[in-house]
Design brief:
alpha/beta; 8 helices
Length: 329
């Protein structure tokens, strides 16, 4: 199917309409569907927004691997200010009283949920009228969001909104038209918005799958229902961890814990590798896969995205209890 056909226009228009309805996106925001994933946006954001102010500097909140990568990429195009003291480990959201926002910054950037380290914002930062930019890739559509508080939101679809291949950018109209001359035209938000995401061939199949997932979310109660389910699912696992007398250990401070990604170690705070291998091997026998922690941190990670059902989490919880009873000394 050509992306220029009326059939595909119906698909992409349906995806945008559903997304606008699910997040109550104001009319003065453009919705564009792009390629390049979140990592592409690490470049696109400074290339499009750093020109908003003459000093060409940006504020970044670094709470995990993904915001750290975004800040490093932005350094190619801008002077980057990390707004808080450097964290010894990614186990908490730094207190906002410690943030030093730069009045000359073109924007303030943060990642709403860090998948690797299991750290999630449960609030929208108050940046005193600055342009707020957020990577919502891993908790997108897991709860309602007041889009009007943001200058730009982006999200790769592959966690909660579809399959890999498409990234959604929601950008306020008054921020368009400031791209640096070095900005590749396929990353220029004004060009893409002006062409209805069709300046170049879009990821058609990924957009089609996304439209189906958005329809599923709508039919299952919308973002508010996903929020309630996320809370129920994550509490089931955290309750086991917290009542395990140290057999399961989550390193993240309770107020910063992610509802999407729950990292934990088994046996002690540093993890007993032999026990963790037994846990993972037995989980595979029970048809539970992808529980291995990210290679940079090790251990176990349970990801509880929208498509994971309460029944799935109950199965994991029952396994965690039985494994603890068998191996706890």
């Amino acid at each position: 199917m050509s992306h220029r056909t009326s059939d595909f226009l119906k698909i992409i228009n349906s995806a945008e309409t559903l997304l606008r309805e699910l997040l109550n996106i104001p009319e003065n925001y453009k919705v564009i569907f792009l390629q390049g994933g979140g990592s592409g946006q690490f470049s696109a954001i400074p290339l499009n927004l750093i020109g908003l102010k003459e000093r060409r500097c940006a504020d970044y909140v670094v709470t995990g691997a993904w915001s750290a990568k975004a800040a490093k990429e932005a350094e190619k195009y801008a002077k980057v200010n990390i707004v808080h003291p450097k964290l010894g480990s990614y186990t908490k959201i730094p207190d906002t009283s410690s943030w030093n926002l730069n009045q000359d910054a073109s924007y303030v950037y943060y990642c709403a949920n860090e998948t690797v380290h299991g750290v999630e914002f449960d609030f929208v930062p108050d940046v005193r009228g600055a342009v707020l930019v957020c990577d919502m890739s891993s908790n997108f559509l897991s709860k309602p969001v007041d889009v009007s508080k943001f200058g730009l939101i982006f999200a790769g679809a592959q966690k909660n909104a579809g399959c890999a291949g498409v990234v959604v950018v929601i950008v306020r109209e008054d921020l368009l038209g400031f791209a640096l001359k070095e900005c590749p035209i396929v990353l220029d938000y004004k060009v893409q918005a002006g062409n209805g995401s069709l300046y170049n061939t879009p990821p058609c199949y990924s957009i089609y799958i996304m439209s189906l997932v958005l329809e599923w979310i709508k039919n299952n109660g919308g973002a508010a229902a996903m929020d309630k389910l996320s809370s129920i699912k994550s509490h089931m696992i955290y309750d086991i961890i917290d009542s395990s007398s140290g057999f399961y250990v989550c390193p993240v401070e309770k107020k910063s814990r992610s509802r999407m990604n729950i990292p934990f170690r088994i046996g002690n705070v540093n993890g007993d590798e032999a026990l963790e291998k037994k846990f993972l091997d037995k989980a595979v026998e029970l048809n539970m896969i992808s529980l291995k922690g990210h290679r940079s941190v090790g251990g176990i990670r349970a990801s509880l995205y929208n498509a994971v059902t309460i029944e799935d989490v109950q199965k994991l919880a029952a396994f965690m209890r039985s494994f603890m009873q068998m191996h706890q000394s």
